[in-house]
Amino acid sequence: MNVKVILTAKETGDRFSEKEPVSFSSDRPQSSTHIQLDPERTYQEMLGFGGAFTEAAAHSLSLISPEKREEIIKRYFDPAEGLGYRFGRTHINSCDFSLGNYTYVEEGDTSLNTFSIDREKKLVIPLIQEAMKVAGEELSIVASPWSPPPWMKTNGEMNNGGKLLPEFESVWADYYSKYIEAMQAEGIPIWGLTIQNEPEAKQVWDSCLYTGEEERDFIKHHLGPSLEKHGHGDVKVIIWDHNRDVIHERAKAVLSDPEAAKYVWGTGVHWYVSEEFENLSKVHHDFPDKHLIFTEGCIEGGVKPGAWDTGERYGRNIIGDLNNYLEAWIDWNMVLNEEGGPNHVGNYCDAPVIVDTVNDEVRYNSSYYYIGHFSKYIKAGARRIGCKISNDAVSAASFKNPDGEIVVIVMNANDREEEISLACGEGNFSTTLPLHSIATFIIR
User: Fold this and answer.
1) Is residue 409 helix, strand or coil?
2) For the whole model, what pTM was predicted?
3) Which entry of 55, 169, 198, 312 is annotated as an active-site residue?
4) Would residue 296 show up in a list of annotated catalytic residues for this protein?
C-alpha cells in the first residue's frame, strides 16, 4: 500500500504540502510512538465540516475587493481546491457578531404578519448563496437564535440574558417555521435548528436562558408540534448548543423524556470552559440513536497574528470530539476584520481568515490549515475506525472514506520532532513529524 502524506508545520513553512509518499513494509517498527489502525472496528458516520455565516463575516467580506472575496469563498467551499465545507451555521435574529440588535418582526406582532428577513438579504443570504455555488451542492445550514424579540422576554431586551415569557412560547415556536420558509424562498434550505445558543449563559450580548427542563418542555409542547404542523418535521432539532462540561446532564434532561426526545435529532456542543471530550461519549452511550454535532468554537480576545497555538487548539479539539462520536464540526466566524469584528458589544475574536479591510489584504491563520487537515480529506459518509496510540506523544484520529481509502490525521504539539510508526493490517511505515505540526496520511 502507498501512503500519501500532507503536512503543515510551524517552522518549515509547509502548508498542506504534499511530501514524498511512503510505503508499507513488513519490517518491525522501531519507533516508541506506534499507531495501530483497525479498519474493521467502525464507529460514527461523518457528515462534514463547516463554518458560520454571521453578519460580521459577510460585512467584512463586503469591504474587500471582489477578487479577494471570491478567493476566500473558494478556499473554504471548493470541494477540490478549498476546505470542502458542507455545513454552515447562521443566526436567527441578531447575535453578538452582528452590526447591532435586530429581529424580524415589529413589536407586539403575535400573528407574525410583519415577519421579514430583509436584513439578511443585504449581507448574509448573498454570502450563503455564493458559497452554495462554489460548493456545487446544497449546504447543510444550522440556524440558531441568540434571543427572541425583546417584547417576548422577561427582561425586555435582547441582551443580558432574560427568559422567554410563557405567554409567547407558541408564537416563538412558530417564529422558527417562519424563518425556515423565508430562507427556503431564497433557495436556502434549513437543515437543522438549535433551540437556543448557549442557554446557560447570561451574556452582555444577545442571549436567553433556559434550564434543561424548560428546553425540554418548549420542544415537547411548542417547537416540535409547531414544526410538524407547518410541514417542517424533517428539520433536525438540536438541543443544548453549549459547552461540554454539563452536556450529559442537559442531554438527559431532554432526551430521557420520550415525548420531547421524539422531536430531537441530536445535541450540539461548543468548546469553551472545558475539554471534557469523554462527556460526549457519555451522551452517545446513553442515547445511541441520537447524534452529536459541534456547533461553535473560536479563539477569544481579538486577532492573534502569526499564532500557532490557535491552530493546535483547533486540532486538539477536533481530534477529541471526533474520537468521542461527534459527526459534524462547525467553526464559528469564517472571516473577521482586522480588529476581530465587527461585534456590536466589542466581543472581538480571532478567525481562521482575517481580512484587512483598509489595505485589502487577506491572512490565513494556522487554524485554517489545521481545520483543513480534517475537512479536505474526511469525506461525507466516512466512518471513524479503530486507532490506538502507544503513548501520548502525539494525538490522532482515523477514518475510512466511502471509496475505501483510509485517512489518518496525526498532530505533534511538542517542541520536538516525533518519530512515529503506523500499522494497518500486516504492514507498517515509519516517519518523522516536525515539531508543532499536523499531518494527514491517506492510505490507498
Assistant:
1) strand
2) 0.97
3) 198
4) yes
